[in-house]
Amino acid sequence: xxxxxxxxxxxxxxxxxxxxxxxxxxxxxxxxxxxxxxxxxxxxxxxxxxxxxxxxxxxxxxxxxxxxxxxxxxxxxxxxxxxxxxxxxxxxxxxxxxxxxxxxxxxxxxxxxxxxxxxxxxxxxxxxxxxxxxxxxxxxxxxxxxxxxxxxxxxxxxxxxx
Amino acid sequence: xxxxxxxxxxxxxxxxxxxxxxxxxxxxxxxxxxxxxxxxxxxxxxxxxxxxxxxxxxxxxxxxxxxxxxxxxxxxxxxxxxxxxxxxxxxxxxxxxxxxxxxxxxxxxxxxxxxxxxxxxxxxxxxxxxxxxxxxxx
Lengths: 162, 138
Hints:
The complex is a heterodimer. By secondary structure, chain A is α/β, with parallel strands linked by helices. Chain A contains seven helices and nine strands, in the order E-H-E-H-H-E-H-E-H-E-E-E-H-E-E-H. In chain A, helix 5 (87-95) packs parallel to helix 6. The longest helix of chain A is centred in the C-terminal third of the chain and has 12 residues, at 125-136. Chain A is globular, with a radius of gyration of 15 Å. Chain B has one domain: 3-Layer(aba) Sandwich (Rossmann fold), CATH 3.40.50.510. Chain B has six helices and four strands, in the order E-H-E-H-E-H-E-H-H-H. Chain B has a four-stranded parallel sheet with strand order 2-1-3-4, sandwiched between helices. In chain B, strand 1, helix 1 and strand 2 form a beta-alpha-beta unit. In chain B, helix 1 (16-27) packs across helix 4, helix 2 crosses helix 3 and helix 4 packs antiparallel against helix 5 (112-121). The longest helix of chain B is centred in the last third of the chain and has 14 residues, at 94-107. The mean pLDDT of chain B is 93. At the A-B interface, helix 3 of A face helix 2 and helix 3 of B.
C-alpha cells in the first residue's frame, strides 16, 4: 500500500504552491488528485502531467473512483500527496475508508457568503460542520498555505469564524 | 475599431504590467497589451471566468503570454487557448514581449515562431557564452 504523506484540501488542486513547495516538503513521489471534473478532462490532465516535477507521478480519479482505488490496493505504492478540492469531497472519502490521521487546509476559494478565517482561506457553515465532524473522529486539522507560514490549528480558526 | 492582434499577459500577482513598463521604455506605448493578474485568493474557476471574458473580446491572431508553466495562469490559458484558438506562450520574459510588441507595432501582425524564438534565445549563460564565442574566434 502507498503511504499518504500529506492530505491537502486546495480548491486550485495542482498549482504552483503545491508543485514547488508541498511536493518537496512532503517528499511525495505521487500526487493523487480527486476531481470528477479533471478526471474527465484529458487535455488538462495532460498539462498537469507535463508540469509535474521529475520523478513525481500524477494520478487523477473521480470522487467515487478514489474510494474504489483506495479499497482495492491503497493507491498502490509510493509516497502520496492526496489532493482534494473541497471539504465535502474530504468527508466523502473519509467515510469511504480513507481515514487519514490529519489534513491540511490550503485554500477553499472565495464567494460572497464565505468568511475569511486565515490569510486567503475562507469557510462557510457547511465547511465548519464537516471540520467539526472530522475533528470529532480524532483527525488533526491544520490550516496552512505555504510551508514557510506557521500552521494554524482548527480551534483557533473556529474562534475566528464564530 | 483596432483590429490589430492583442497581447494578453497572465501573471501571478500582476508583474506583467511592470514588465510592460520596461518594454515601453524601449518601444514607447503599447496599448494593445493588457493583463489579468492572478491574485492569491482566486480559485481556478474564478480566474478562469475573468480570463474567459477577456479572451472573448480578443481580435484574431492575438497571443496569450503566461509566467510559469505548471501554474494556474498557464493552466487557465491552455484551456482557453485550445477552445478559442489563440497561441499561448509560457515563460514570459522581456525579449518575448518586446518581440511581439514590435511586430504588432511595425507590421500590425504577429509571427508566432519569432516570438517563441525570441523568448527562448534570451536565456543565456552570459559570461560562458561570451568566452566560448571569443575562443572560437581565436
